Input
Amino acid sequence: MSDSSVKSAILNIDLPTHENVLAITTTRNNGFSSVPFDSFNLGDHVSDNEQCVILNRKKLSHSLPKNCNIQWLNQVHGSNVIDVKSYSSTPLTADASYTDKCNLALAILTADCLPILLVNNSCSEIAAIHGGWRPVADNIIANTVKLFKDCPENITAWLGPCIGEQAFEVGSEVKQKFEKLSPLFSKAFVKQSNEKFFAKLHLIATLQLQQLGIKNVTGLGECTYSNPDKYFSYRRDGQTGRMASIICITP
Output
């Protein structure tokens, strides 16, 4: 991250050797929404004032190239991936998107779930993934990588802020679901005295990416739950706003 200031609304994501790709992620700060969505809420489905969300999204758009359109998704915690050929003003129902088109900014909304951005070395293909535990367990990462024409060895993955392991307590059924995919995932769960487990979302995603052949994994490993001045967190606050992570191929 080139700017880690708590008061910044928009943070640039540093993707070395990917000059033709713009990637950003947001915090909760310096927007227009009121409590409990204060203040840079970008989610239009959380009962925030509609005009505040519009103003926040306009501010976000102004940080992108002039002819760039943000493609929003209607995220449903599923494993469907959409190949975006052209901009749609109506959100597309899916939890991941892929494109090889310029000036199409793929957006993911999160407030504890893991945002995952993908780009190939030639900057000709990108994707954005809503990495909640359910989509990840249902192989949304693999479903997305399948759309790339390039081989996985040429793809870089960026993992954004999400709920950290000390706050993300899950039941044994979640652990078992991942272990059915591979015994390797057992290392991503730490047993607690109450028979539940702390889950490491970043590690789970990294293991899946590596299994798919993607070795270049980078990111910002900050915990949304434990940084209330910087990030929204659904598990911490219940009713709250959403951050956005965005990636776009520029001419």
In short: The chain has one domain: 10-162+216-249. The chain is about 20% helix and 25% strand.
